[in-house]
Write a structure and sequence with these properties.
Shape: globular
Number of helices: 10
Strand content: 15-25%
Strand order of the largest sheet: 2-1-3-11-4-12
Radius of gyration: 19 Å
Largest sheet: 6 strands, mixed
Order of helices and strands: EHEHEHEEEEHEHHHEEEHHEH
Amino acid sequence: MSPPVETFPVASARMYSWSPSLTAAWQRLLQWVSARAGVSLEVLDLSDPVSLDDLWAREDLGCVFMCGYPWALREDRPHLLAAPVPSPPRYGGKPVYVTDFIVRADSVYRTLEDTFGGSLAYSAEHSHSGYNAARFHLLPYRTPSRPTLYGRLLGPLHRQVPVIDALDLLRRHGSERAERVRVVATTITAPSAPLVASPMVEAASRERLTSALLEAHTAPELAVTLDDLLLTRFVRVNPADLEVFLERQRAAEAAGYPKLA
């Protein structure tokens, strides 16, 4: 009889892996975190077409990026490890992000209002960056005489590349694609997507993983990697901060805008 195959909790940055150079940088970071923490992790092959929903449903998450909105929606919330602080100035040195409304670079649209009556693409209804943030941002534009703003919705498109909602990284790792679009509006900030772990990962191991993430910016060997990822550091996450995703959902629903339209 063959001995059982040893398995380890998984690590993944699938949310943000859109190009070979970006994927390689995340792989380096996650492998470093695993070694630094002394916690064996299986860094997933990002060419595997598994969906984010299927990934987040796994019971063996060890160090996996998860959107804060579906995390807040869950009753069985995974443990929070840490969240990234982006380096571009518009984030103010905080663990936050924004969603950009974009149009084709050669489009006649100059403002967000110019796009009303046209088409709007989104990633998934349980995504904050690709749905909930846009819905909340659009609330003030609706009126009794104009309860819907767009004539057609395109989606769910699921992956960020089709939606192109993270232009800072895209400009670094996919400049040709980024040059084909133009920003016409930007949402208010929301908490960065945290790295999470399942309950199967014992508390001591989770704390070591968190410590490794918090120390990443002090490691000289990671300087280039963090620069490639447009990150300054990682910080601890307060679960209460992620309730803002549900607050914005409830605000839209209370205003009679449960779905983008």
